[in-house]
Amino acid sequence: MTKMIIDENIPKDVEEWLSKKGFETINVSKLLLKSAKDHVIAEYAAKNKMAIITLDKGFAQLYRTFQKGTPLTVIIIKANPPTPINIIETLNLAQNKINLKEIQNKLVIITKRKIRIIT
Predict the structure, then answer these.
(1) Model's pTM, two decimal places?
(2) How far is CA 23 from the centre of its chain?
(3) 84 CB contacts (<8 Å, ≥6 apart)?
(4) Helix (H, G, I), strand (E, B), or coil: what is residue 83?
(5) Number of domains in the chain
(6) Buried residues in 35-68 as b, exposed as e (16+ CB within 10 A)
(7) Which residues contact 40 (CB under 8 A, 6 or more apart)?
(8) Distance from the Cα of residue 114 to its chain's centroid
(9) Tens digit of pLDDT at every position of the chain (119 positions)
(10) How far is it, in rounded angstroms, from Cα 116 to Cα 119?
(11) Residue 54's domain is classified under what CATH number?
């Protein structure tokens, strides 16, 4: 997988965990996209072939819009409550079930109980 854009709603501990797992991550604030509209982040990600990892369900709709043109990879994590420990646990379970490096140009919705991959 290409680089992952870490949305501002993802805790720093999760970003550090992903980096330790070998994923190349960059936070939206380092891209000067902090507080940017979701579609601006999505445009940047699609243009630069980067995945977006977020808690924001709104990116699912953007994924559908982008699939008509430039492909976009979106990973939405549903962890309740969205604490760093719950998010990491959810991602860890997902990593054991799927190869996160093979989800390019897809919408992936991850919970502790299931993983939905939408093409």
Answers:
(1) 0.91
(2) 12
(3) 11, 12, 13, 14
(4) coil
(5) 1
(6) ebeeeebbbbbbeeebbbbbbbeebeebbeebbe
(7) 33
(8) 16
(9) 568 999 999 999 999 999 998 889 999 999 998 889 999 999 999 999 999 999 999 999 889 887 677 889 999 999 999 999 999 999 998 887 877 667 888 999 999 999 999 98
(10) 10
(11) 3.40.50
